[in-house]
Design goal:
Distance between the termini: 148 Å
Number of domains: 1
CATH architecture: Beta Barrel
Number of strands: 12
Largest sheet: 12 strands, antiparallel
């Protein structure tokens, strides 16, 4: 059956209407873009930095929070009370010079300082092994022993040391043939104070000797007026630290001893004390 013109118009109108509705729907869906939000914007976190976190911040080293003096003390000072790490070692070369040089008293024209070697080895828990050697050609002292150090409060430190060894006096020139040998014992107490990167130490020592053995040529014997207490010394040392935790030092003090300790060659039997 062939449709009439009147019936075709409603069909065309329906087709146009049907095509217009999807177009309007498409326009509406375009305005309602799901990626667009009408809520208040939410602050986003800043991108995390890719810089690595320092290992010190994750695992602080054993020296974190320690002063420069305490860091160097773990390796050990020469004189400052030091709580050394177990196995830590310090070796020091130095020299002493007497205000009144015994070499002048002996009749020498050359004024010679005493060369000293000091070493300490950490045992842990405040304990250390110590060694000391000093020599001025005609006198030599070798001492070995142990020390214990602790920090009672703040910047103060204390240390007690006990060493024992051998005192040797020897002169075989300019008409002399003399040898003096004696055991030596030296208890010491040290008080230390941290002054910035400088370590100050006041050290007191007592020298004990005996029995002495004296050989003059082919004759041997002892000292008639000897005494176990031969003297004491009080020294103030200033130890300066370096960037590599090294140490250099200087100091001054006084020593009071019996004549035969420092001037044994001229006064072997004198019990007097000299400063």
């Amino acid at each position: 059956m062939t449709p009439s013109r009147g019936a075709l118009a409603p069909l065309l109108a329906g087709a146009l209407l049907a095509r217009a509705v999807p177009a309007q729907a498409a326009e509406a869906s375009a305005s309602l873009d799901p990626s667009t939000s009408y809520a208040e914007p939410v602050a986003t976190a800043a991108p995390a930095s890719n810089a690595p976190t320092p290992l010190d911040a994750i695992n602080p080293g054993p020296e974190a929070g320690l002063s420069k003096i305490q860091q160097v003390a773990k390796k050990g000072f020469t004189f400052f009370p030091s709580v050394q790490n177990s196995g830590a070692f310090r070796f020091t070369l130095g020299a002493y010079y007497d205000a009144i040089d015994p070499a002048v008293v002996y009749g020498f024209n050359v004024r010679v300082p005493q060369v000293s070697l000091d070493a300490r080895f950490g045992l842990g828990s405040g304990w250390s092994l110590k060694g000391h050697l000093n020599s001025m050609l005609i006198t030599t002292e070798l001492l070995l022993g142990a020390s214990y150090a602790w920090h009672p409060a703040g910047k103060w430190s204390l240390e007690g040391t006990l060493t024992a060894g051998l005192y040797v006096g020897k002169l075989g020139q300019v008409g002399f043939d003399v040898l003096l040998l004696s055991p030596e014992y030296r208890p010491e107490v040290a008080l230390g104070y941290e002054f910035g990167d400088i370590a100050l130490t006041l050290r007191g020592s007592v020298m004990l000797m005996g029995p002495e053995s004296l050989n003059v040529g082919d004759t041997s014997g002892g000292l008639d007026n000897s005494n176990a207490f031969v003297g004491h010394s009080e020294m103030l040392f200033v130890e300066n630290t370096t960037s590599s935790n090294g140490v250099w030092y200087f100091g001054a003090g006084a020593m009071t001893t019996r004549a035969y300790y420092a001037m044994w060659l001229l006064f072997p039997d004198s019990p007097s004390l000299f400063t």
